[in-house]
Amino acid sequence: MPGATLQSMAGRPVAEDPVMSDPCAPLKIQHEEGVDWMLFNRPPVNALTLAVIKALIAALGHSAQDPRTRVVVLGGKGPHFCAGVDLREQADAWRNGRTGAAEMGESLYRALLDFPKPLICMAHGAVAGAGLSILCCCDLAIAAEGTRVSLPEINVGVLGGVSHLRTVVSRSLAHYLALTGQPIDAARLRGTGLFLDIVPADELQQSVAVIARNIAAKHPEAARYTKRCMRAVEGVGQLDGYLREQALSQELRASGVTDVLVTRFLGR
Question: What span, in angstroms and rounded, lies between the C-alpha atoms of 70 and 27?
Fold first, then answer.
């Protein structure tokens, strides 16, 4: 389970980022076989503080430049993925005119949406508020059974999350979550597009690892261009999306990667 220390899927110790080896670090980072596992480290609910968001933005920047990193998985230590912004810290920041986690929203979501490599969310427990927005910024998400998602912002008089959620689920579901603030169990969300799969809690890490390693084995430039294509076609018409896709495909062929992969495929 992600609540415990991440274990190597191959039975070997997972390489941990020495910068984040401090048990009190807001984010734990471990690297194995092309995959960076980034775990929010403020259990039990992993509420987002200014320090957590800054650590995540910095870690994504590092992984984007690190040639060893092919895929990033976002998860949380303890019983929950992320219950959103730390309201106690945020309220104090508002009262004293300081920058809080909420004021880092644009920077956080730009870092997630512009991240050039595949990004997987490993969800369990509570996925609430900004935690749900983070999930929606990932390329795909796998959830443990019992995961509960919510947009509780209406309960505290703030806004945020609908724009992210509407890119993934139906209008009615997004509006229900926003207007009620009530959590919904992942089991009720099968088929909505929010989760690729919902698996037993003790199989979550293994299930995510299988997918992450499959993606990490792809040619990094092919994966990078596929990610660009995924972003380029969002929210546009079918033909316009196809034309954008073909333009990127021509760039990829011009780089020589297509010839290498086609030759490799035909030689099997």
Answer: 19
